[in-house]
Amino acid sequence: MTDFTGKVVLITGGGSGIGRATALAFARGNATVVVSGRTPGPLAETVALIEKDGGRAEAVPADVSNARDVQNLVDATVRNHGGLDIAFNNAGAFAAAPVADMDEDAWNALLATNITGVFLPMKYEIAHMRENGGGVIVNTSSNIGAHQRLPGTGAYAATKAAVSALTRTAALENIAAGVRVNAVSPGPIDTTMSLRPGETEAQRADRMKTATPIGRVGTTEETAATVLWLASPASSYVVGHDLVIDGAATA
Ligand code: NAP
Predict the structure, then answer these.
(1) Nearest residue to 166 via CA among 130, 121, 105, 196
(2) Hey, which of 12, 16, 88, 196 would you mutate to test ligand 1's pocket, going by the most ligand atoms within 8 Å of its Cβ?
(3) What confidence tens digit (pLDDT) does each residue in 32-75 have?
(4) How far is residue 13 from each of residues 48, 80, 107, 228, 235, measured CA to CA in Å?
(5) Which burial class, exposed, middle or buried, applies to 2 when counting CB atoms under 10 A from its CB (0-12, 13-18, 19+)?
(6) Residue 2 has what pLDDT?
(7) How confident is the model at residue 1 (pLDDT cuts 50, 70, 90)?
(8) 156 is catalytic
(9) What DSSP designation does 16 have?
(10) Are 2 and 232 in contact (CB under 8 A)?
């Protein structure tokens, strides 16, 4: 399940959090990993961590909401590494506001990152994978929106419900071509995204004792392990699924 020898993996949002942990896990499984995001510094740090461990990685900066960037990202991956076998479309952003108070520019920006930023990578990845006999795609959705509604998260929820719908539709469209598409829906995971404004990690840990049935935040490594399973042949009959990793928050 964790042997990805000979596989080329593309990860958006690979400079931090869930994306970085998943990049490290794939590299430990002997994959070649291309990490992407808008900011070169964190991407270079992910590459350095992988190379320090003896793995292979490259950073290709791209804004997932920009079609030209994304086309270049997929082209560069294929050109530099000979193909694209697995894609983890994970980049995303969060914005909190009640629907009635949501700023329109903030709304549009969130939709561009979280929805267009999954649609565009899938569009170019699928084209390549179909031409080359198949592949695996995992998108990052969220328990909020895809499986649960919380006041003050309407815009984010709308984007993640869209990711799950897009995932399932693309799965049906591409199953016959050997492209297997699934999503993961994390609950609160130990990245900066799950910290409330001004909150420390210790305060988050206290909040999680009652906020989740399992009594704690999830780890990026637990999320990565689930992504690797969905990307591996061990899950070959799992298609068009949106797998929650949330300590029973949506049970
Ligand atoms: P994170 O550390 O903030 O990661 C988000 C990543 O997305 C960053 O590396 C960021 O890099 C990248 N990104 C944002 N906008 C982008 C854009 N327009 N183009 C390219 N890259 C962009 O938080 P995380 O928790 O690991 O989040 C990863 C995914 O998990 C997101 O989709 C998030 O919605 C989802 N998620 C997280 C949680 C949680 O509790 N942490 C729960 C459910 C779902 P740059 O800023 O450098 O571009």
Answers:
(1) 121
(2) 16
(3) 999 999 999 999 999 999 999 999 999 999 999 999 999 999 99
(4) 16, 20, 20, 16, 23
(5) middle
(6) 84
(7) low
(8) yes
(9) S
(10) yes
The pair of structure tokens assigned to 174 is 């591409």
CB 200 within 8 A of CB 158: no
| Cα(237) to centroid(ligand 1), Å | 28
Yes or no: say if 83 and 49 are a contact pair by the CB < 8 Å rule.
no
* pLDDT value of residue 62: 99
Residue ranges around ligand 1 (CB below 6 Å): 12-13, 15-19, 37-39, 42, 63-65, 90-93, 113, 117, 140, 142, 186, 188-189, 191-194
CA of 18 to the centre of ligand 1 (A): 8
Which atom of ligand 1 approaches the CA of 43 most closely? Answer: 47
Token pair for 201 = 């990690």
Q: Which residues of 128-160 are buried (b: 16+ CB within 10 A; e: fewer)?
A: bbbeeeebbbbbbbbbbbbbbeeeebbbbbbbb
Complete DSSP assignment for 141-184: --HHHHTB--TTBHHHHHHHHHHHHHHHHHHHHHGGGTEEEEEE
What is d(CA 227, CA 122) in angstroms, rounded to the nearest whole number?
A: 16
Q: For residue 144, which atom of ligand 1 is closest to its CA?
A: 43
Radius of gyration of the chain from its Cα atoms, rounded to whole angstroms: 17
CATH topology of domain 8-245: Rossmann fold (3.40.50)
The structure tokens 């999680």 sit at 208
Q: At what angle do helices 17-28 and 220-231 cross, to 10 degrees?
A: 50
